[in-house]
Design brief:
The chain is of the alpha+beta class and 521 residues long. Among the domains are: 203-391, D-amino Acid Aminotransferase, Chain A, domain 1, CATH 3.30.470.30; 395-520, OB fold (Dihydrolipoamide Acetyltransferase, E2P) (Beta Barrel), CATH 2.40.50.140. Strands 13, 14, 15, 16, 17, 18 and 21 form a seven-stranded antiparallel β-sheet that branches. Helix 4 packs across helix 5 and helix 6 runs antiparallel to helix 9 (130-141). The radius of gyration is 26 Å and the shape is globular. 35% of the residues are buried.
Length: 521
């Protein structure tokens, strides 16, 4: 089984278990170097810089018409897929066994160095199947869109090697030599030192229901704020600090300020907590934290303008001792002895007091409350009765559809990605949110038909439509923003429904959003 055969298998199913099984089969049966390179690319470790401009130019030269190529690209929704569908050999037979990645990477280098790269790429694509070409081009550009997360690849490697996913994730960071002994090294037993450097499965919360209060004693719970940041485990071991996200991704390099602050912590320490941007002594909205995410280099200026802090709420390991089987009350008592910012336990004498505290959570930069069993142990995953999250009710607004764009994958032929707006103070339309989830397939099909019939103008793949449809959207957060003409940014906007009962004059305007912003400060 080679990498193309794996891609074919992954593309034929939407089931996570089937994708996992295909990855396991590839790892077990594939050429060791092919497996190493294939996993590297699925994990986002591209070895070559993609030249999307070259791919676009190749398509235009092949068709001889830029407008025609742009129309094809808009219909398909993916540059690599568009090119592979346009240029291929329909009579070619898909080779599912011969290792291909190393050879293709060499061919990509040769194409880039050719006198006419576009013609060299056309010649390469013209002799292969569409699927081979798509795989070849994705090695170049990345962005596989196969429903394969980093966690799924890591879990497949864990299944084959017999190691935990966290150990595999750690080894993926420390050792990425694509040679024949790669998988053997990943299968080696875990050393005590390595175990101390590894995160543990995260304890996850269930959604709290209002009627739970009538069947539970408030004294059995520790109440905390639910912070609007990134869940993280901080590990201090052998003089090194590592930060692990809930998806078992090492995010240490993105937060050098947090690493520097962790020097005061004792060795062999593992804490569970949240990464937050702290401004004026209070957690800033999540939008502020987004400026720090997924950066290869974090400037000193950015660290000063958007300082990130780790706020701990649980202690899982200290001085080599695993405390996960100790009650939460004991773990928190030990946590208070450490020099680290901590999420406070809140005073709650009754459920009515808890409700009042929840209603005021936004005033301290929180998005609700956490209720944790006082005597609960720390178990990975969602364990009934351990942790509950009681978030603030989402905010809503009635907005107008202004622009639409085709989706991706099975939605590539429908206009499903919407841009919504409101009237500004001068009466012009200003955008406030983009959303693509919340509607049924039947509703999307009807709205797609309406969009095509009421398009005012097209800008490449984007259609501007008559401002006539009013939608109700919900969102989890709102923040002031200098980047947007509206002056606001919404977090996690989603569509609730099409408001056929409302006209344009019934849609909300800026004062509505300003009121929400003031209420959540």
């Amino acid at each position: 089984m080679n990498f193309v055969a794996l891609i074919a298998a992954l593309d034929q199913t939407t089931k996570t278990t089937a994708k996992h099984d295909s990855l396991v089969e590839f790892i077990q049966q594939g050429d060791p170097v092919e497996v190493a390179l294939g996993c590297a690319h699925l994990l986002g470790h591209r070895t070559l810089k993609g030249h999307r401009a070259l791919l676009r130019q190749t398509g235009i030269e092949y068709l001889g018409d830029e407008t025609l190529f742009e129309a094809a690209y808009a219909a398909v929704g993916d540059l690599a897929e568009t090119l592979s569908l346009l240029i291929n050999d329909p009579d070619a037979i898909l080779d599912r066994t011969t290792p291909c990645i190393s050879q293709w990477l060499d061919e990509i280098v040769a194409i880039q160095a050719a006198g006419s790269p576009s013609q060299a790429l056309i010649a390469q694509l013209a002799k292969c199947t569409a699927l081979s070409n798509w795989t070849f081009l994705k090695l170049w550009t990345g962005g596989w869109r196969l429903g394969v997360s980093q966690g799924l690849v890591t879990q497949a490697l864990a299944t084959v090697t017999g190691q935990s996913a966290s150990v595999i994730a750690e080894r993926l960071i420390d050792d990425w030599s694509a040679d024949g002994a790669w998988l053997s090294r990943f299968s080696q037993p875990v050393s005590p030192e390595e175990r101390q450097r590894s995160p543990v499965p995260f304890c996850l919360a269930q959604g709290w229901q209002a009627d739970h209060a009538g069947t539970r004693d408030i004294a059995d719970y520790i109440v905390e704020y639910k912070w609007d940041g990134i869940r993280c485990q901080l590990i201090r071991a052998q003089g090194v600090t590592r930060l692990w996200s809930r998806g078992e991704q090492d995010i240490t390099h993105q937060f050098p300020d947090v690493v520097a602050a962790s020097i005061a912590l004792p060795e062999n320490c593992l804490l569970d907590g949240e990464l937050l941007v702290i401004q004026d002594g209070q957690p800033a909205p999540f939008q502020a934290l987004q400026t720090r995410l997924n950066r290869k280099r974090v400037s000193v200026a950015l660290q000063h303008s958007h300082p990130v802090q780790f706020r701990a709420y649980d202690l899982l390991r200290l001085d080599g001792i695993d405390y996960r089987n100790n009650p939460l009350s004991e773990r928190r008592a030990i946590l208070t002895t450490l020099t680290v910012d901590q999420s406070p336990a809140l005073t709650a004498a009754s459920w009515e007091a808890v409700e009042r505290t929840r209603s005021e959570a936004a005033t301290v930069g929180a998005e609700g409350l956490m209720l944790k069993a006082r005597n609960g142990l720390y178990h990975g995953g969602r364990q009934h009765g351990l942790w509950w999250k009681w978030k603030l009710d989402p905010m809503t607004a009635d907005v107008v559809l202004l622009y639409a764009q085709a989706g991706h994958g099975r939605r590539a032929r429908l206009y499903t990605d919407y841009t919504f707006g409101i009237r500004g103070e001068s009466g012009d339309w200003i955008t406030v949110a983009k959303a693509y989830s919340g509607l049924t397939d039947t509703e999307l099909t009807k709205i797609d038909r309406w969009i095509r019939q009421h398009t005012i103008e097209s800008f490449g793949p984007v259609r501007q439509v008559e401002p006539r449809l009013v939608f109700e959207i919900a969102f989890e957060g709102i923040a002031a923003s200098r980047r947007h003409k509206s002056g606001i940014a919404l977090r996690f906007p989603r569509i609730l429904r099409l408001r056929t009962d409302l006209g344009l004059d019934d849609a909300d305007q800026l004062p509505h959003f300003h009121a929400l912003l003031k209420a959540r400060r």
